[in-house]
Amino acid sequence: MNRTVIGDVELVLSEPVEQEIEWIGQKELIDQVLASWLVVHEKDLPLCPRLVGKPGVGKTTLGYAAARAAELPAYIHQCTMDTRPEDLLVTPVLSRSGTISYHASPLVSAMIQGGVAILDEANRMSEKSWASLAPLFDHRRYVESVVAGIRIPAHPQFRACVTMNDDASTFEVPDYMLSRIQPSISIDFPEREEEMRILRYHLPFATEEIVKLTVDFLQDGHKYGLPYSTRDGINIARYACKIASRDSKPSDPVDWQSLFQQVATSILGED
After folding, report:
1. What pTM value is reported for the model?
2. I want to staple 37 with a disulfide (CB 3.0 to 4.6 A). Which of 16, 119, 159, 247 is the partner?
3. Using N-to-C axis directions, what is the helix angle for 192-202 and 230-247, rounded to 10°?
4. For the chain, first and last CA: distance in Å?
5. Max Cα distance, the chain (Å)
6. How far apart are CA 223 and CA 247, in angstroms?
7. Residues near 137 by Cβ (< 8 Å), separated by ≥ 6?
8. What is the full per-residue pLDDT of the chain (271 aa) written as tens digits?
C-alpha cells in the first residue's frame, strides 16, 4: 500500500486499475483524447475532455485505452448522486485502535502519482461535489481537502477525463464546470464490422451464429434509435452461450434463433 506525505499529513494512496482492455475501432476518438492531453508549450496546460454518449457505448473503456496509449497509470472513480467532496478527495478512516488515517481517492492518487483520473458517470454528482474540483480543472491545478486540512497540487503529468451518460437520470452540470471540462467528445454506437469485432474480442468462445444474431439485433436497434448498447449485446450472447452449454450435449444442435429471443427478453425485458 503506497503512502505519501503532503504537508504534515500522511495519505494512503489508491492503486491504479490494471486490466487488459482493448479499444476496437474508432481510433480517431483515442486521438482526440490524447490531443486534449497534449502540452505544446511551457505556458500550456492539458485539457480535461468529457466523453459523452449513451450507457454501454464504451466511454470508460475509451478513457482507459487513452491512458494506456499515453503510458500512464489509470485511476477510475465511480461517481454517484451520493458522492461527497471528501469522497472525491480525501476520506478519514477510523481504525480499531482509534487512530485516524487519511485515504486519498483515485482522483487524488492520480494527481499525486502523475496518472490519469477517469471520473466515471460524473454528471450524476451534485453541484457541491463539482465545486470541490473547480481549482483542479483550471490554471490552478490543485484541490483543497477540508477534512485533512491540506492543499494538494497536481503532478505535471496528471491528466483527467470525465464520462457522462446521455440520458435522463443525471444532474445538470454547472456552467462554470462545463467551461473547465472541455472538449466534449461524443461516442456513438459502433458500425456493424466494429461491433462484430468487439463481440468476438469479448466472447472468443461464442459461436459465429450467436455473434451474428446479436450484431444484427443491435444494428437494427441503432438504426431505429433504440437504446440497446454493445454491452447489452455482450450480455445477451454470453448468457445464451451459458444456457446452451448447460442444457445441451456437445453433439446436440442448438436452436440459436429461439434461444436468442428467449435470452434477449430476459436481459432487456418484455418491451
Report:
1. 0.89
2. 159
3. 50
4. 48
5. 68
6. 34
7. 48, 160, 177, 180, 181
8. 799 999 899 999 999 999 888 898 889 999 999 999 999 999 999 999 999 998 889 999 999 999 999 999 999 999 999 999 999 999 999 877 888 999 999 999 999 999 999 999 999 998 999 999 999 999 999 999 999 999 999 999 999 999 998 776 667 889 999 999 999 999 999 999 999 999 999 999 999 999 999 999 999 999 998 889 999 999 999 999 999 888 666 566 778 899 999 999 999 987 7
